[in-house]
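Hi support team,

I've been running sequence recovery on a batch of backbones for a student project. Most finish fine, but this one hangs at about 90% for roughly twenty minutes before it completes. I'm not sure whether the input is malformed or the queue is just slow. I've pasted the structure tokens below so you can try to reproduce it. Let me know if you need the job ID as well.

Thanks,
M.K.
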């Protein structure tokens, strides 16, 4: 066995830990604030310098030092913390003198030591700096490497937020919104900079939190403490990260079941059920799950069905628009029929639902379902369907409505209390795949923005020129468009009312990477303005931890989908 490498290692460690001939501590050195400078990068990058500081946090690949409070400068733009890229075992509280080369990595200023000396052991570590969020990029840079503490809200879950534990969370002063939920993207692009929220990550191996805690976006973090390890990637703005050593959490209460006032004659609801697929009947009557969407086996399907049914029973709507149901017909083994039968088994006779069954099914893997209670609503004539082949054309003669991704729109007229009310049930193309458009990012609308915009124009034309006449009209479904995006603007311009406008608080139906917004909408004709008795975007899904999958075997309704149900109360 060759012992030479081990001997060399021990000699090296001995050289690092032996005291110098004369105590070097206190001799001239560059302060940490001097090394950090008041800009994004150190003015001494690439140079060999000496500094001193107190160890306040260890990490697998190094440790942080900080200038004691009594020796810090008076410049708030300069950080008093510094990362030391060394695996040497150190103890918190040790005052170190280090000599090495200064460099930058992921916007973090670091010193890679050639010489290290323990000057003394302090009775404690430097006091944490109190943060008040939000901070600008420059303010984050000014506390890089320092001990900090503060309070915040949970504003996002990360890929590391596992089913049993979570090693990281997004936190900010307030919930974060999609830019195009609030205004056209050009007007608010600067309002959602990444530095407005921080990544709270476990500093050690222990998780920050256990997912048995019903943690939701908006949950309070009354106290966190750790070290600022702000980092960035090429071409990106600074993204602050705090490696947390202490964290307190106060879960946000979950919303109660809907409770409707007596003066309501009609409850209308829209709900994206997140890919309800029930497989295909194979040999010996066994169900086979061949599709990449939805449940992957019978037990997952059973859990998904039970949770969706509990949710729909709680909504207790008279007419339901359900998006993302497998497009496999209406036969005995279809997904639509299975969900309908499961729902009706939980209803009294007066509350039973029926399906609207259009002949035109479309070509997409998913379809939109329209369910109604015949005890409350009676269909007037057959359902009408908007699709590519009966769509109004544009100026070049091309159909405005494109069947690619835009599911056929069901337009059913009902009679309710001697009045007719027409409901258009839709699900427009998602932002998830390309439509070959040249201006996909128009007004920040993302992929297929033009396709959705054209589909809305086609629907407006259909309702005006081809649909049956009705006293009142509703458009319900997943538009895949946030409120200020282009597809919805023609509806506003034509006088349609958005049901969310009747809510006293800002609503949301979807959460994408910690940014909230409304992809799901209910629009109503002006004739219904005086008939509205309430609106609810029931936040049971979008703000929940996505680690709780729709297929989890639980009695809870929370996270039964990734969209929140939209509920409109009317008195006709």
């Amino acid at each position: 066995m060759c012992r030479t490498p081990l001997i060399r290692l021990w000699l090296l460690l001995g050289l690092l830990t032996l005291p110098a001939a004369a105590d070097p501590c206190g001799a001239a050195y560059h302060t940490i604030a001097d090394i950090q400078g008041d800009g994004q990068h150190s003015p001494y990058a690439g140079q060999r310098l000496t500094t001193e500081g107190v160890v306040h946090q260890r990490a697998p690949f190094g440790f942080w030092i900080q200038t004691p409070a009594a020796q810090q400068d008076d410049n708030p733009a300069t950080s008093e913390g510094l990362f030391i890229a060394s695996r040497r075992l150190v103890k918190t509280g040790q005052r170190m003198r280090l000599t090495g080369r200064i460099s930058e990595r992921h916007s973090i200023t670091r010193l890679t030591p050639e010489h290290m000396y323990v000057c003394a052991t302090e009775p404690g570590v430097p006091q944490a700096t109190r943060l008040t969020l939000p901070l600008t990029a420059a303010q984050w840079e000014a506390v890089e490497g320092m001990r900090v503490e503060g309070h915040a809200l949970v504003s996002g879950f990360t890929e590391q937020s596992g089913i049993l534990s979570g090693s990281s969370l997004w936190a900010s002063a307030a919930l974060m919104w999609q830019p195009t939920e609030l205004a056209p993207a050009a007007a608010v692009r600067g309002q959602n900079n990444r530095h407005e929220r921080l990544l709270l990550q476990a500093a050690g191996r222990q998780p920050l939190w256990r997912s048995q805690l019903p943690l939701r976006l908006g949950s309070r973090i009354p106290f966190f403490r750790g070290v600022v390890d702000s980092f960035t990637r090429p071409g990106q703005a600074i993204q602050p990260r705090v490696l947390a050593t202490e964290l307190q959490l106060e879960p946000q209460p979950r919303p109660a079941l809907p409770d409707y006032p007596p003066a309501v004659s009609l409850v209308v609801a829209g709900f994206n059920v997140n890919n309800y697929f029930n497989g295909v009947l194979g040999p010996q009557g066994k169900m086979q799950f061949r599709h990449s969407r939805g449940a992957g086996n019978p037990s997952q399907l059973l859990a998904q069905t039970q949770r969706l049914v509990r949710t729909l029973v709680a909504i207790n709507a008279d007419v339901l628009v359900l998006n993302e149901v497998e497009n496999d017909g209406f036969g005995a083994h279809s997904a639509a029929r299975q969900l309908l039968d499961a729902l009706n088994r939980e209803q009294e006779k007066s509350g039973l639902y029926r399906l609207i069954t259009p002949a035109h099914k479309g070509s997409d893997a998913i379809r939109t379902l329209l369910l109604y209670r015949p005890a409350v609503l009676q269909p007037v004539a057959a359902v009408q369907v908007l699709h590519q082949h009966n769509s109004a054309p544009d100026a070049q003669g091309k159909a405005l409505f494109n069947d690619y991704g835009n599911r056929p729109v069901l337009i059913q007229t009902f009679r309710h209390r001697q009045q007719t009310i027409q409901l258009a049930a839709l699900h427009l193309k998602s932002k998830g795949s390309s439509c070959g458009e040249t201006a996909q990012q128009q007004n920040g609308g993302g992929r297929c923005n033009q396709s959705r915009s054209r589909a809305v124009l086609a629907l407006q034309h259909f309702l005006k020129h081809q649909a049956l006449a009705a006293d009142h009209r509703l458009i319900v479904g997943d538009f895949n468009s946030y409120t200020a995006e282009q597809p919805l603007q023609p509806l506003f311009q034509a006088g349609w009312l958005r049901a969310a406008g009747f809510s006293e608080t800002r609503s949301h139906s979807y959460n994408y990477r910690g940014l909230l917004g409304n992809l799901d909408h209910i629009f109503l004709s002006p004739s219904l303005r005086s008939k509205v008795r309430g609106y609810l975007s029931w936040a049971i899904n979008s703000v929940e931890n996505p680690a709780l999958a729709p297929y989890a075997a639980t009695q809870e309704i929370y996270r039964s989908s990734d969209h929140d149900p939209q509920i409109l109360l009317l008195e006709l």
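--
Follow-up from support: It reproduced on our side and the slowdown came from queue contention, not your input. Residues 181 and 483 are 5 Å apart (CA to CA). No action needed from you.
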